[in-house]
Amino acid sequence: MRLLPAEQLLAEPAGEGDSLARTYVKACASARLVGNVTTRLALLDTGTQQFPVSITDGGEPEGNCYVVSPRTAYSGYAREEIKRLGKPWLTWPLTLLTLGVDRLLRLAKVDRLAQVNNWLLSTNLYPAGWDLDELPAITALLKAEFPDSGFGFRSLNDASNRALRERLEGLGYLSIPSRQVYLFDGRAGGEAAFLKHHNTRLDATLLRRSPYDVVDGAALSEADFQRIEHLYNLLYLDKYCRLNPHYSAAWLQRGQEQGWLDIRALRGPDGRIDGALGWFANATLISAPIVGYDTALPQRAGLYRQLTRLCLQEAVERRVVLNFSSGAAGFKRLRGGQAEIEYSLIHVAHLPWHRRLVWTLLSRLLHGIAVPMMKKLRL
């Protein structure tokens, strides 16, 4: 079992048998492909699996993306989400609470953190066939490598990762809730329950009658990838939150070429791409970290509905579960999405008591307040 720094991987010649994880670490370490992510990368090689590992020391720029920064995830991003609640009676007390949390997180140096299987995505997928008996050795290795840092795993939910979460908790990892995500179970293929929902059928009709052609990522040009970056930015950065990952056209293009991203685009009769999405997948799960469309076009064009339908169709055709991330909760529920609380599992038992205390308080605060609120407000 080894932890290989990205610098060491970059010095090696490219191999035909390189895993996607190894290829990804080398790609992201060789150039700044995600604009607002500052982190070191390494590859964890367990002998049976390989995982990207992000490593931060807490000295990164303010506003470092939440995919590597717990402080941004539980403070900065939380404040942005609170603004969108549209419930003034909740906004001020929750904002004050997150400011207090931010101060505690800084004192506890929560951004001194190594995260296993971190692909710099909102949702990381875990292999179904992973031998969890490797976890004690992984924990021992990380404790030796990072004596003054926390370490752990993001993007776990009980529908997909209950055994992994329980095993990690048994090894002393703290459970830190992060958000509520929506799953669409396509394992039954054409009999999948979400296909029977009225809105899902309406979306199918919309896509079938659409003037747009669905274009495979392999047929896209460099200019097309730049357009897709722009469309992603319109939705995720301009409409939602600037703290979302700033994926570059180069990241999108490398992902398509190297096989860790599968892109589809909606090209209109005039040749312009007005919508696009990118899948990240393994044998049992699929996610869509890239979704973007021209937000200036009329809502009746239904671009987001068409992209959603493409995601659902892909889950059905692959017979896998689609993790459709968080956001647009009502929209996803109407199409049969099943809500699941997502967690990070963080090991801090080797850290000084005051840093352990803050992580423990964060865990209890989120379990006691955030999780019931997410469920009640159906976020």
In terms of DSSP E residues, the strand content is 15-25%
Strand element count: 12
Spatial order of the strands forming the largest sheet: 1-2-3-4-5-12-6-11-10-9-8-7
Approximate shape? globular
Stretches where pLDDT is under 50 for at least 5 consecutive residues are: none
- Our count of helices gives 12
Total individual domains? 2
Largest sheet descriptor: 12 strands, mixed
Q: Tell me the series of helices and strands, N- to C-terminal.
A: EHHEEHHEHEHEHEHHEEEHEHEH
Distance between the termini: 40 Å
Q: Structural class from helices and strands?
A: alpha+beta
Radius of gyration: 20 Å
Q: Can you give the helix content as a percent range?
A: 40-55%
Mean pLDDT score: 94
Structure notes:
It comes from Pseudomonas solani. This is GNAT family N-acetyltransferase. The chain folds into two domains: 2-180 and 341-377, no CATH class; 187-319, 3-Layer(aba) Sandwich (Aminopeptidase), CATH 3.40.630. Helices cover 42% and strands 22% of the residues. The chain has twelve helices and twelve strands. It has a twelve-stranded mixed beta sheet, sandwiched between helices. A hairpin with a 5-residue loop joins β8 and β9 (273-281). The longest helix has 25 residues, at 353-377. The mean pLDDT is 94.
Briefly summarize what is shown.
The chain has 379 residues and is α+β, with helices and mostly antiparallel strands. It has twelve helices and twelve strands. 46% of the residues are buried.
Break the fold down into its secondary structure elements and pairings.
Layout: E1 2-5, H1 6-10, H2 20-30, E2 40-45, E3 50-57, H3 70-83, H4 88-107, E4 112-116, H5 135-145, E5 150-157, H6 158-170, E6 174-185, H7 198-208, E7 213-216, H8 222-240, H9 249-258, E8 262-267, E9 273-281, E10 285-293, H10 303-318, E11 321-323, H11 329-334, E12 338-347, H12 353-377
Parallel strand pairs: 4-5, 10-11
Antiparallel strand pairs: 1-2, 2-3, 3-4, 5-12, 6-11, 6-12, 7-8, 8-9, 9-10
Helix pairs in contact: 2-9, 3-4, 4-12, 7-10, 8-9
